[in-house]
Amino acid sequence: MSKLSSPALLTQAFNFVRGFIIIFVFLAVGKVISAQLPIVFPGSIIGLLLLFLGLTTRLIKIDWVIDSANFTLKYMVILFIPLAVGLINYLDLLVDNWIVILFSTFFSSFLIMFTVGHLFQYLNKKGSK
User: Fold this and answer.
1) How confident is the model over 11-65, as pLDDT tens digits?
2) Rounded Cα gap, residues 33 and 53, in angstroms
3) What is the Cβ-side half-sphere exposure of residue 79, based on CA atoms within 13 angstroms?
4) How many Å apart are CA 70 and CA 53, to the nearest integer?
5) What is the pLDDT of residues 61-95, one digit of tens each?
6) How far is residue 53's CA from residue 45's CA, in Å, rounded to a whole number?
7) Spatial CA neighbour of 34 closest among 44, 23, 49
8) Would you give the DSSP letter of residue 111?
9) Distances from the Cα of 45 to the Cαs of 41, 52, 122, in angstroms?
């Protein structure tokens, strides 16, 4: 393990904080936009799309958020622990309805793949004309 000097440590800390601030600002803006919409749409998705647009248009440099994003992705598994505990609490309900859950999962996955496949073929034919 290498020791970082004070300026290097401060620079790394600044990069982490700057990245988290940028990510949370986009999340907050997405939530504000979501609250103003007449339909229900997750603010986190809007914020993610805005961050994506900011990165693709290079208004936000990837170097500004890469350290924070990698840190978040590295420890994302911890965020799923409450979900797993919640599933264990409702295990009897899951066991009673496993056929419906399995059918819904496979049917919806098939329907999405079918729709996307046909949409791609339609758009591919339309684009080649």
Assistant:
1) 889 999 999 999 999 999 999 999 999 999 999 999 999 999 999 999 999 999 9
2) 15
3) 5
4) 19
5) 999 999 999 999 999 888 888 888 888 888 999 99
6) 12
7) 44
8) H
9) 8, 10, 27
